[in-house]
TrEMBL record:
Occurrences of domain NlpC/P60 (ranges): 147-267
Protein name: Peptidase
Any GO BP: proteolysis
Similarity remark: Belongs to the peptidase C40 family.
One Gene Ontology molecular-function label: cysteine-type peptidase activity
TM segment ranges: none
Sequence ranges assigned to domain SH3b in this UniProt record: 72-139
InterPro entries: NLP_P60_dom (IPR000064), Papain-like_cys_pep_sf (IPR038765), Peptidase_C40 (IPR051202), SH3-like_bac-type (IPR003646)
This protein's record includes keyword Zinc: no
Taxonomy, superkingdom: Bacteria
Keywords: Hydrolase, Protease, Thiol protease
SUPFAM superfamilies attached to this UniProt entry: Cysteine proteinases
The UniProt record lists the keyword Protease: yes
Organism lineage string: Bacteria, Bacillati, Bacillota, Bacilli, Bacillales
Amino acid sequence: MKAIVKKMIANLHAKPSQTSELVDEVLYGMTVEIIEETNHAWVYVKTLYQYEGYCQKDSLLIDDEKTESWLEEASFVIIQNFADVLCEPKIQTAKLATLVKGSIVRYLGPTEDSKEWAQIQLVTGQIGYTRTQWIQRRLTQNILPEHKFRENVVQTALSYLSTPYRWGGKTPLGIDCSGLCSMAYLLNGVVIYRDAKIVDGFPIKQIPFEQIQKGDLIYFPGHIAMYMGEDLYVHSSLGGNQVSTNSLNKEHPHYRNDLATTIIAVGSLFG
């Protein structure tokens, strides 16, 4: 059985309990496969990026046919940190939903009166309106030259600067280290593993540290960061409590010895 996330964020937990560890967040419009129905309130699911956890049923629209249709037709993604979806194409109207960056919607086209507004369809079938500049076609693969992809993925990661650290999070409301890197890649059309390690079957491959370039990933014990070039990296740090930048250069004021001296691998899409 397949399902679509119909809430702003669907939490994935380690156990079928709201008080258990948050292992991931699946965003509005993303789809999941239901592996097991645990009880009347919880299901065990697998995401399209192969992550698994327990999700509350009321966060999902469970319907194979609608999910397949949604996968084919919902081809746009929210790129604004927070985007209101309104009942009419004007700001003086009621709100249907607020979506976070990375949420997926079905684009129906511009409004007749103004290209400033885009008409979209929600998971529920409701028609709403949001700013045209807040959505773009969802990338499902990298079609850019290497140098352009590297630049884009870094800029995407930097768009989360100052976002609070949240274990298991991956939105502008709160994000963890692997959430930051995986979302930066996902928004640029590449699905990587959503944890701080290199895993077979995903496109990131280990390379020598000497070959590191902008957009590559730096792995530490239990942590991951994205290299920005010039010895700098961006990451969501539990120690720093937010998304920030640091340096591998001892002479830099933002040098972190605890990380610079514990690098265990470097991974690249272009290894």
